[in-house]
Amino acid sequence: MMSDGDAGRSGAARPGAGSARRARGRPRSFDRETALEKALLAFWEHGYEATSVSDLTRVMDIGAPSLYAAFGDKRSLFDEVVRVYGARYGSFTDRALAEEPTARAAVARMLREAAAVYTEPGRPHGCLVVHAAANCSNPEVEQSLRERRTANVAAFERRIRDDVAAGVLPADTDAGALARYTGAMIQGMSQQARDGASREELESLAEIAMSVWPHAGTATG
Amino acid sequence: MMSDGDAGRSGAARPGAGSARRARGRPRSFDRETALEKALLAFWEHGYEATSVSDLTRVMDIGAPSLYAAFGDKRSLFDEVVRVYGARYGSFTDRALAEEPTARAAVARMLREAAAVYTEPGRPHGCLVVHAAANCSNPEVEQSLRERRTANVAAFERRIRDDVAAGVLPADTDAGALARYTGAMIQGMSQQARDGASREELESLAEIAMSVWPHAGTATG
DNA sequence: TTTTTTCTGTAACGACCACTAGAAAAATCT
DNA sequence: AGATTTTTCTAGTGGTCGTTACAGAAAAAA
Which parts of the sequence belong to the HTH tetR-type domain (chains A, B) (predicted)? Predict the structure, then answer.
């Protein structure tokens, strides 16, 4: 058919890094990364189960056999989507934890950036990791995202413990509870974003959330 | 078949309140309220879409035609389930708002009771209103629960405004942001409960969440 | 008893689900 | 050119979805 202009055969990804020689057989008519990003947006908006393979082939603009040849089955496509999402849209938490000098500053930055990321115009609102496997009949899919969420909370807890050990936070700080509080806050912000809260609303919400932290030296509210 | 003991024909609800005369035709072989509660638990655990009519007829132990005759279609059964859930399991927020003397006390009680309700043994964890319509292909179902969530946040906000007007809370309190913060906290606690957090963990989380509130006179933390 | 009314079990309906067999098409290799 | 390899399109597969037609069963009404 090829009815949509000259969108076809534009990509034809290289077979290997650095090699300019083409692959052997008929080349792919679509760009794999572009199609993957379309799948990512669909899964992000509607979740794993509510996004049918038929939906996917429509938004990716490819036939079902092409999808299965390029990405495996629906499950492995979703797994790849989750990896790409984590690297492209979900890495702000890891960056904040790694780059900010204190746990408090890291969480403050995380919540501020979450307010922006979860309400970015032109993209699904909220966090794919929080929502995309909710009410999923496949327990493995649900578990895979649950593990990512608990891993995030565990990373918060480690960062808080570091600050307690360094004397930046009080010695009697309940690191586990504070980490879970932070995780619940982010997940609650994601839910609020899905329910229509604006970036500014989430930012003022985040500011309130930060007031539970002891202020290390400075007096900022 | 009637293979499960004498469980059948036990209920046969009265046709009208006070009237002892039986209904006209063949009496129902199951207790409507019992079956409705089973449907409630199924929808609570797996959500609207992931709970198939086949799942429902199995857990309610009735045939599909009986389900449709007694409850209408799947959608209207879910609507009734949501109403019953709100009255039986979700009313603790309204009670706290109505019975506690201040917004702060009401929210403190709400979060404390949420920690218990969302982790009650033998029941699905978390809140049906938060989770059961996530990733739902039917936008009306998703919207109906979204409206309940936003109505709850609006009720928080009204209660907070009352305290601001009464001088119980500072005049510069951002009632909307504090209400959304509370809603996000409850929703985050529900998500944490789904992810396996215990009642005690949610309680210490709630205690942290309450520390953002100005303390009206008393010194409790 | 016969009629009327309502419920119950069987057994399907069309629509969609994730997935794939098979043939034609488009490239490289010989 | 012809052979080989890979992708594409068409057209399905069996299974499950929500829902219902139909006939028999169980009660009250006549």
Answer: 29-89
